[in-house]
# Entry
Amino acid sequence: MFKYYVQLALSSIMRSKVHSLLTMLTIALGIGACTITLTLVSSMSANPISHKSEQLFRVQLDNWDPNQAAISPDLPPEFVTWTDANNIVNAKQAKRQSASAITWGMVNPTEQGLTPFLALMRVTSKDFFPMFDVPFIYGAGWDESAEQNNDYVVVLSKETNQRVFNGVNSVGKTLTMLGATFTVVGVLDDWHMSPKFYDMSYGAFSAPEDIYLPLGLKAVFELPHGGITSCWKPIESQRYDAFLHSECINFQLWVELEDGEQKAQFNQYLTNYVTQQKTLGRFPRPLNNRLLDVTQWLEYKQVVKQDIQVMFWLSVMFLLVCLINAASLLSAKLHTKHSEIGLRRALGANFSQIILQYSVEIVFIGLCGGILGVLLAIFGLQGVASLYAGYGQLIELDLTVVTSVIALAVVGTIIAGLIPVYSACRPAPAMQIKQ
Amino acid sequence: MQFFLNLGPIFRALMRQRFSAILVVVQIAITMAIITNGLAITWERFLHIERHTGIDEHNSFFLTSSGFTQGFNPRATIENDLSLIRATNGVIDAVQTNSFPLSDSGNWYELQTTTDKDAALIPAASYKFDEHGINTFGLTLVAGENFSAQDTLWLDEADSQWPSHVLISQATASALFGEAQWQTAVGKTLFVNQSTPLIIKGIVKRLHAPWVDWPHVEKTIISPARVTHNSARYVIRTQPGRLNDLMQSLSASLAKENTQRVIRKVKSIQQAKDEIYAADIATVSILLVVIVVLAFVTAMGVAGLASFNIDKRRQQIGIRRALGASKGQILQYFMLENALLCAIGAVLGVLLTFMLNIFLVDRYSLTPLPLLYVPIGVLILFFISQLAVIKPAVRAMSVSPAMATRSL
Amino acid sequence: MLTMNNIGKVFTTDVVQTHALRDFSLQVNEGDFLAVTGTSGSGKTTFLNVAGLLETFDSGQYTLDGQDIQGLNDRARSQLRNEKIGFIFQSFNLIPDLNLFDNVDVPLRYRGFNASQRKERIINSLERVGLGKRLKHLPSQLSGGQQQRVAIARALAGSPRFLLADEPTGNLDSDMAKSVMALLQEINQSGTTIIMVTHDKTLAEQAQRQIIVRDGKVCDSTGPITRPESVSATNV
# Structure
């Protein structure tokens, strides 16, 4: 019997090709629009480290102006000072801790016979690599003693290693940069967190840095302050170390805590630390420490652009219009079939057989519309990706979105299509045979 | 009168196929809500993007020169570079600057008219460039005069000294001295960081801050300083039509002139603008596509319902024609039927428009919908649906009166 | 075989209640050829719809082939229709998009026969009405008489116990009407019970038995109808 319905459905679709195509196209447009916005939302709200996101915490301390909160109404600043970054990392009260900041400098790979270039760099702590599951192809991060002694060691990104060393294992080789000679200790594999939650100061979808080096070298080489620097009181002198000892914030501080107990302990430590700093005349505001895990942090930073959420809602309404339109089209088609339905009823088809027969047709139309919609979305996303130049390459159609929108198309079309079928079947069969 | 007499039977005929009529009404209403809100967002963004920054956006580009050798001399390099650039055929003028509008990086200070601690602080973005800046950026001096070469101060990177004279934007002058008295600002003194006094030498009509979304984007202050960095940024204004070839040739000749540095980040202001506004441009483009496609889908729905109704009523139309209805009256019937659906849709649509707007404003802090958009939305929907119904209605018009005698 | 006892059917609209059938009683025996006549609005179409299980009734008792119809759900009624009753309509009611073979196939599909059974029945019944060579034709390629023969073939294909014919010759000219009537006679002679609704007295006279419906009641007398026509809502 099912085969018969499929035959009927196909012949019905073929008989009214334009109408069926129009219905499919309508569904496809709605589904396409929803797929595009859903993909944008999902690729922007992705949690790139979901398996660990409850163990990684952003540390915020309130060293701000007693008269004015850093972020209204009374939130602490998002970054920490050089002083606090170093104190907390060196105290080693968490399982892992890292403070980092963006900087830049000239790389002068004269031994390799290359022209100098300006590289974006990250000064950071050794725990940064294991904390964020950073993948290495060669070597590893630097060790404790290198960090303590401010050894001239670097970790290169895969691209930088390709550029300077042609992609070979460069561990142990030297690289001239910042006017000194550095030793390569590790080379990263492809690593692009998106959103780049650990440091979003150049945007949530900005590219990772080219070179990583120990935090202490920032002071040694007096490296520029990349990212966002913010001060609430004037720096006392123009010397570089005056900045380091000021209340200016620039550093991204993260800790890894395994469970609630560790978190409670660390919180207690932070309270003690701030209280102790208050005795030195710092932290004039009330105690206001914050520990946000990755999920909370992303939410707080509103990584998904509001525009995209607005567009998402508009596209849902757009889909609704398209489904209503499909329902109109299907209902118009069914009106021409009232007498056929009545006749089939007279010839012995029961209500559910009629419903089933048209459901097959409707599901087929919905499925085709859904697939067509996903195809439209693939083209549409290419266009959209070129519009979002900065992070266009990060927008990818994922399987969950595709399957759920196709399911949505089918369910939506069934609802849209079966209401007219139902109303067509409802009158007693006799009514429809008479003309 | 005829018009209103017609509405009753049309309405009753529609009620006999409630399901289809309701679908079209709901479709018109939702479409109206989307189009009205979408247009409001689009127009707001468009105005935001098209806001004039005060500089010649179309004929200017910028580049960065970064020295990397021990013996690199920033000051000499800047002086050489600028004289080379300014002497190049096709260049109108060039300047070394810490920042420029649309660059998205820079710093700002708080200004006051007294040193009084409680006086209002006026935030203003800081530009540092010499007397060539006015010409390079194409700024308009509306009061006072430009810097002279003697005003310019060479500063070390770490030197926070201020030159004695500054220029300010008209918006800064208005904020400091009052909307009506901005012209009186010339010659007066302002204080920066609650201590340093600066004499206002002139006022430029418009110069925006580097950050487009900064709430105080119109407030700027220009000091005649040239800060020597290992990295220096030049902004170059070319004669119309020379931008692209000069971007290439100048960066090549600068790189050749001095090999102790690299030339990087060569970009036109227009490119920088497109990048800064990428998300807004994307929003505007996507919304426009959505609006157009939606209008199309709804027009199809309206046309579909109309042509279905007409097919169903061919004999009825034939009978009407046989009984003396003119072609025009048949056309009018279907246009009126459509107008009636549209009117019901518009009532629901206005409601939905406001509901959607309240939701968006509440959740995403959008600007509330200006009321003017509501009648615009109604008119657009009315226009779309009347347009959509013309073709089927014309087909109805051509139904022969002989249909009346034909059996089905 | 078919027994109706005091069947009542009321149509209710906003304005009036119309008794389309009232105390309608009828006994049809196996092998009968019954003609039901009556003026427009007399209730004969309602009788046909009720008899053919196309419509429900409001009161009374209806037994078809020993089965009480009262209280059967839609599924059971559909099945009974499919297995026991064949319909022939005034306007043929063929599906225009299907060829003759597929048109006759429709009731067999719902019956659940397998493909070879269906094929055999379709070809047999089309041959029986003299259209065995035109399986692939569309209804629009046939004359009215031929279309009605296809409709009869479709009604016969499932070997029904009853044939319900609603003005089977109403849309045909007299020659075609004669041949269709002859076909029905022949079918009746081979054992199928036929109930034919018509307003044509000469046609009715060709049936074995004849009843007249008036005001929703069986009225065996053939006397003149004096009452004005009552309002009928059956065509709403």
Notes: Chain A has 15 helices and eleven strands.
